[in-house]
Amino acid sequence: MADTGRPPARDELRAHLVRTMIAGDVATPRQNNLLHYRRMAAGNPYYQFGLELKPSWTERSVLEMMVERCGVNADPRHVYGDDTIDPEITLDTLEAMGDRIGLAARRKETVVIATGHPATLTPVYQAVARALEGAGCRILTPAAGWTYEIDIDYGGSDLRRIVYAEPGVAMLEGEDFRTHHTHDPHPMEAMLRELASGGTAAASADSGNSRTTSGEPDVWPDLAIADHGWAGAAGQAGIDTVGFADCNDPALFAGAAEGKVDVVVPLDDGVSPHHYAPLTAYLLARAGLYSGV
């Protein structure tokens, strides 16, 4: 949509979401969605995103939950082709996310921000991080450089390390020095372990939100803004968590249904990065942080 120098109205953003296939009819294959629902229900750790979900989930109940919370096609006989995300749910949850981010800004909270989709969603998170930092929030950057080994599809292994995009968006970098997609909760778990052990790392000045109660970490996030396993691990740790998820990533929606994740915004997380700019402007405006740039 054209740059008008103002955030879009709700109906304008809705039209943009549908036109760019961020919501509405999306390119995520239905068969891929159902496979992921089945694997999450079976307890496959890769599809749990670090959440300890109830064992009562079935493929059918996951589908029903995803109809309610994401807006996928409700017909269980629809097993092949594309799927849907309800743009009204996207807008409602985006507003709820904006409300929580706005509260963080007013309270000058301590925040951790991370993405498993660095190729597409990084600009969204960076804009939010800058806005919160400008409002006096502390953006944590723990465990920078922490590495772990992953298996790769064609055999062998590779290292992944935590790196941060300015001003404090965590993501993974490989041995090829490129950022990589991940579902893993392990990096967020490492970040929280460092904070719990008293490690300190922040991208901005101390906002006065350090915890001093005996037995608690000196620094701990009040809010996590993330996706994939980064969000799942934060929610499982009891941190207020808001984030984004595609319709083939049911675990965060299940986490929200179980009360472990506060807000999940359904969207296609793989479109061209510039298409998310109006969504970002709307989110920041809802939070009271829109600066017009």
TrEMBL record:
Ranges of Low complexity composition bias in the record: 199-208
Disordered as annotated region, ranges: 199-218
InterPro entries for this protein: Phosphatase_SCO2771
Pfam families xrefs: Phosphatase
Superkingdom of origin: Bacteria
Protein name listed in UniProt: Phosphatase
Lineage of the species this protein comes from: Bacteria, Bacillati, Actinomycetota, Actinomycetes, Streptosporangiales
